[in-house]
Write a structure and sequence with these properties.
alpha/beta; 4-stranded antiparallel beta sheet; Isoleucyl-tRNA Synthetase, Domain 1; Gyrase A, domain 2; 5-stranded parallel beta sheet; single chain; globular; 544 residues; 15 strands
Amino acid sequence: MKKLKLQLTEVLSATISTLSFPNKLFSLTPPKNHDFGDLSSNLALLLAKDLKKSPMEIGQNIINELNQNLPTYISDISITEPGFINFKLKISFYQSRIKEILEKGNRYGKGNNGNGKTANVEFVSANPTGPLTVGHGRNAVLGDTVSNILEWQGYDVTREYYFNDAGRQMRILGESVEANYMAILDKDFDFPENGYQGEYIKDISKKIIDEKGVNLNNGDQNFKDYAEKIIFDDIKNSLINLGIDFDCFTNEKQFYENGAIDILINELRNQDLIYEKDGATWFRTTALGKEQDRVYIKNTGEPTYRVPDTAYHKDKIARKYDKIIDIFGSDHADTYPDVLLALEALGFKTDHIKVLIYQFVTLLRSGKKVKMSTRKANFVTLDELVNEVGTDVVRYFFIMRSMNTHLDFDLDLATDHSDKNPVFYLQYAYARICNIIKHGEQSGHKLDLNFDSSLLNHKDEIKLIHHMIRFPENMDFAYENLEPQIIANYLQDLATLFHKFYNRCRVITDDVNLSNSRLALISTIKIILENGLNVLGISTPERM
C-alpha cells in the first residue's frame, strides 16, 4: 500500500501540474467511511483558497483530467462533500497481494528506516532496593517492545538499564537489612527512619546469617552489598520471566568515581549557569528561558536526579547512537527537560533523544482496586502478577493502551481464558489457522502457490485482504510514534475479521481450487499474526 500511495501521489502531482494548479502538500489516507473508497485526498480542499473556487468544482476538474489516463489499479474516482477526492482500487489489486505476503513470510511488513543505524533504549532503571513492582513492569514491557519495533526497522538496539547503587536509598537499604539481622539475633538496633520493610528484607537478613554468620559488626559493608546483589539477581530473574534481556547495565556511582559529575558542574559553572545560594548549588535555568532555577545539589550535599542524569546522557551521546530513547514514569516529567536543557547549553545536539513518559497502573479485581501485598511490603510485585496471569497476558495488557493514559489492569479479564481476553482472542485466531492448515493437509489439501486469487471475492475475504495489506504501514506508524498499542489494535481488528470470515466461509471444501485459494488467504493471516505478535513479544501457540 505504501508503494501504491507513492505512485498515486505522483499521478496527482502530475495532474495538478497539467492543470496549472499550485503545488500543495496533500494527504492520501483511507477515508473514515470505507464506502467512499480505499484512499481519499484533501487536495481540492487545499487548492480552494488559491483558486478561489469551491473544492467540489476543483475536485471534479481533477477527476476529469485523471479519467483521461486512469491508472490501471483504479476502478473508480469520486468526490464527496466538502471536497474529498476518493479512489477505489480494483479487487484484482488486493487479490494479487496475497502471493507477495506469502513470498515475504517473516519479512513481510519489515521496514528499513534503521538500516545501518544504532539505537539505545534505556528502561526499567529501578534502583536495587526491592523487587520490581507492577509499575516497573509496564516500563519494562514498553521498553522491550519499543526496542523490538526499532529492530523491526533494522536498528541495532542496545537495551540499557541505568541504576543508582550509591546514595541515601542504598544506605537506608543496608541499614534496614542490618536492623533485621540484629533483630533476628535478639540484638538491640534501632530501625532506620523511612527504612525498607517487608518480608524480602527479612529474607535477605536470614540469608546473610546463613552465609556470612552471626558476628557481623555495626555498619558492615556486607549488609548493603549483599542486599544489593540479592535484589539485583531477583530483578534480573523477573525481567527474564518477561522475556527481557538487557545488553548493558550502567550504574550512577561510576560518574562520581570517574569525575564526570565534577566535570559537568565545572562546565556549567564556566558558562555562569551554576551558582550557590542558601548552602545549595543551583542550575540557572532562568537564563535558558525557564521560569525558575533548579536545585542541582541540596544543602545536605546530596545531588538531585538532574546532575547524574545529565552526566549519564553526556556518556550516551559520546557513544554516538543515532537514536536515544528514554522511558520514564510520569514522576520524571518535570526533571528530564532540565537534563536536555543542560546538554543543549553545553553545545550537545538533543534532537535524536526521545523521552517517552508512561502513566501508572492500577490493579483491579471485581472492579475494585486490589489490596496491597502483605508478602512484599506495601506494593504488588511484578512476579506476583506474572505468576497469576502469565507472561503473555502481562506483556499484552501493558502495551494494549497508549502509554500516555493511566492503565487499569483488570485481573478478572486477564485471568479469563475465553475470547473475551484480547490475548487469547489473538492466540486463538492463530491456533485456529494452524489447525485448519493441518486438517487440510490431512485431507489432501496442501497449499499450492499457483492458487487462483480471483476466487477470493467474498465480501469477508475482500475485507480481510484490505486489512492485511495495511500491516506494513501500521508497523511504520508504530515506529514513527513509538507506540506499541498501534500494533496491538491492528492485530485485534485482523483477528476479528478472520473470525467473521471463518464463520461465513469454509476453507476446506469440495472445490479444490477454492480450498487452495482460501488456504493461501489464511496462511497470509498466519504470517501477519506471527510477525506482529513476535514484535510485541507474545507467543504464538499452535494449539490452545
